[in-house]
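Retry 2 of 3 after timeout on previous attempt. Resubmitting structure tokens to design endpoint.
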């Protein structure tokens, strides 16, 4: 895995809760050494739907080697917001290093 500072892009759609979902996207934070691999922090604000949005914060899993580089899996729950108050799940796989 690369030792140099690098980032990944991520995007997706949350789970459907209270009859709606939100889109999200962004760029990870820089690589953080973890054991024999590394992880990245993900922070984003979802799209504004049904008069509210949600905050997202998570760490990716370790690097997964793929042809030409590596990717990371991620997942978690958003902040609670909206009426009625609720959260959404999110998960996905990052791009290769950008």
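Retry 2 succeeded. Sequence:
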């Amino acid at each position: 895995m690369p030792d140099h500072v690098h980032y990944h892009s991520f995007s997706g759609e949350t789970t459907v809760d209270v009859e709606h979902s939100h889109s999200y996207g962004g760029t990870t934070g820089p690589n953080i050494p973890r054991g024999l691999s590394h992880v990245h922090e993900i922070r984003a604000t979802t799209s504004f739907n049904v008069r509210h949005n949600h905050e997202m914060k998570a760490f990716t899993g370790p690097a997964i080697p793929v042809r030409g580089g590596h990717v990371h899996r991620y997942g978690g729950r958003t902040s609670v917001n909206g009426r009625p108050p609720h959260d959404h799940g999110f998960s996905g796989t990052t791009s290769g290093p950008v």
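Attempt log closed. Residues 9-93 form one domain.
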